[in-house]
């Protein structure tokens, strides 16, 4: 089973490295990490990842996964990235995204009339691509599977493994990787975050970031 992760500069590494760590353990998995030319991409954490393949030599995906990150604003305007995702999606068994990677699916016209999710700070932009936001960490609509922000990608990977290979396999991988989150603080979603922290984060980071993303989307639709 070919599992293709599409990378680009300024990708959020955990959007990718979380799901790939789990999905690579799916029996029969053949993971292909790809970039446009096969060259290394720089993550928004400051280090680089060297892909396995370029778009030109990437096999047809059974699962295609598109992570998010600051680089999405440029990626949605890159016809080579958008066309590659669209072409792979025509045959893929599962079309998936993590975080703002959903907007690359949207640019490829893969969200229209679908339910989807992404990072909480950007969910109001999903209707720009014809999608309806459903508030959940993982949303499935047919063969489209979208995950919320960043760490939601691990939950999405486990759901996909369970769907493909069964719950026992998914539970075994979960145990092997000791995935049993118990963070020291609650507040990882707007619903349970302290109001002061949520307001501060929106003002310092996400109001500007969401406005910039909206402007980038308007240029391509």
Number of strands: 11
Q: H/E element string?
A: EHEEEEEHHEHEEEEHHH
CATH class: Alpha Beta
Fraction in beta strands? 15-25%
What's the CATH architecture?
A: 3-Layer(aba) Sandwich
Strand order of the largest sheet: 5-2-1-6-7-11-10
Mean pLDDT: 98
Rg from C-alpha positions?
17 Å
Which superfamily, in CATH terms, is the homologous superfamily?
Class I glutamine amidotransferase (GATase) domain
Distance between the termini: 33 Å
EC number: 4.2.1.103
GO biological process, one term: regulation of DNA-templated transcription
Protein name: Cyclohexyl-isocyanide hydratase
Domain DJ-1/PfpI: 2-162
Describe the structure.
The model has no long low-confidence stretch (mean pLDDT 98). α1 links the parallel β1 (2-6) and β2. Helices cover 36% and strands 17% of the residues. It is α/β, with parallel strands linked by helices and 221 residues long. The strands form three sheets. A seven-stranded mixed beta sheet has the order 5-2-1-6-7-11-10, with helices on both faces. Strands 3-4 form a two-stranded antiparallel ribbon. A two-stranded parallel sheet has the order 8-9. It has one domain (2-182): Rossmann fold, CATH 3.40.50.
List keywords for this structure.
221 residues, alpha/beta, Rossmann fold, seven-stranded mixed beta sheet, two-stranded antiparallel sheet, 7 helices, 11 strands, 17% strand, globular
